[in-house]
From TrEMBL:
GO terms for molecular function: heme binding; iron ion binding; monooxygenase activity; oxidoreductase activity, acting on paired donors, with incorporation or reduction of molecular oxygen. Keywords: Heme, Iron, Metal-binding, Monooxygenase, Oxidoreductase, Signal. It holds the Pfam family p450. Residues 1-20 form the signal peptide. Belongs to the cytochrome P450 family. InterPro entries: Cyt_P450, Cyt_P450_CS, Cyt_P450_E_grp-I, Cyt_P450_sf, Cytochrome_P450_Monoox. Gene3D superfamilies: Cytochrome P450 (1.10.630.10). Its cofactor is heme. Heme binds at residue 450. This is Cytochrome P450.
Amino acid sequence: MWVVLSVCLVAVLLLKLALIVHDTVKIWRAVNKLPSPPGAHWLAGHTNQGPYDPGFQWLLDTVAAFPRAYTLWNGPVPMPTLVHPDTIKPLLTSPTGSVKSPLYLLFDDWIGKGLALSDGALWKRHRRLLTGSFHFDVLKTYVPVYNECVEVLLGKMVKLAAEGKPMQVEHELGQCTFDIILRTACSHHSNCQLKEPLKDGEMDLLSATNTMTRIVTSRMVGNPLYINPWMFRLFSPQYPAWERAVGYAHKVGDGLISKRKEELKKKMEDGDPLTSPRDFLDTLLLARDEDGVSLSEKEIADEVNTFLFGGHDTTSSTMTWVLYAMAKYPEHQTRVREEVDELLADRDSDWITSNDLSSLEYTSLVIKEVIRMYSPVMLPSRSLTAPYDVDGITLPVGTTVAINLYQLHHNPTVWGHDHMEFNPARFLPGNLAALDPFAYLPFSAGPRNCIGQQFAYNQVRFLTARILKRFRLSLAKGEPEPVPCLTIVVRPVQEILLNLEPRNL
Ligand code: HEM
């Protein structure tokens, strides 16, 4: 009996192994037909060439040489990479472009099956239930929160200017955007912008989030063994810090949810019809599908963690590059300021309303160009669930395909040979009309595009306008040119320091 069972088990294992080898060979045969940068090592692939080294020179050279698609070897694992509207569009608009690649599992402990990671029916249901939270009318209600949060930032900037100190842009914007997402998503006043620096061993939600971001990044680009969750758990020296930070973030999230549940319960008992959710958390707790089923506790917690993460690092990185670009290109800074001055002329206060945002036309061009230049979210990837054709080569099911948005936005065949030049006029309607709609995809496209796109865009326009109304920005003397690097988002390797000159209003 045992002998028969053992033979069956071995046969099943061998069959599985044979299937894995068969699928791997099939994928390798297909990806080898795509062009690939020369010199890939048989084991290390292109990793020795530093494909994601700060400054992204390898990416710029590679897209110039392979402007449609190429195979990147991540160690021994191939990753066909799409960099042209023609090769990207069919993927993002087809059902096979909806399934995220295994790389996203690096976030699994942290955000579970939240919207960014889930697939299939679960993703569809959540996307439907959450879309309302980003409706124009809901976003409007967040503008007063932006005003309150930016007042804190401006106060800190006044103090820095008075002391003659430069602003640490990423640090300050990181705190401000975190304040905004906590208040808009959960109405939580964390006071994070004014907190004293943490002492050794202390943790708050922002520091926990930063720790998790740092560790995911180092797993992505560091020792490939740690991509495997078990290897990471058992052998990585970073695992204890990860476990602590995830535990802390989940505890805070769960606390916010249970407090709100109590508040809603009380409101219902008092006869409140709860027709207008106050924030994203209310929407999650009150969401019901057609048959009246609500989200489970775990689903709600995963979405809260997803939005706190997705809604913070992205806008913080974008704002960091926007303020840097304003300091680096004073002529554009002046034009943005003139636009804001004109908008706010004859007003007693420089608070900006939601109706004002659409008047900030030049500001919008500048922001679009900054987002093109730095592409804060750089590397979405998918796992093919159906064969996918790239320039006549069929990639089989199971292939991990990347879309490199930085390379798309610096593709000379799409944006011209002056793609490294900062030129907001690219986005003037007349010039835009000549471009493929899939040439500019900072928020991705198709069914899995960024649900927070308008929220982010409003916030960035708003913060830029309010900051430039009050201050002239210039590069701190002697500071090196910031070098972009890939963490989860694209950020400068070193903090950017800007001088602040208050305006006499
Ligand atoms: C400038 C800021 C932002 C940029 C450049 C950006 C970019 C992106 C991109 C490229 C994707 C697609 C990722 C993929 O396919 O893997 C995405 C998805 C997503 N983003 Fe954003 N994002 C930004 C801000 C935000 C904000 C503020 C929120 C939330 C408040 C947010 C929440 C999400 C979520 C939940 C998804 C997954 C959507 C889905 O799969 O259905 N993002 N974002």
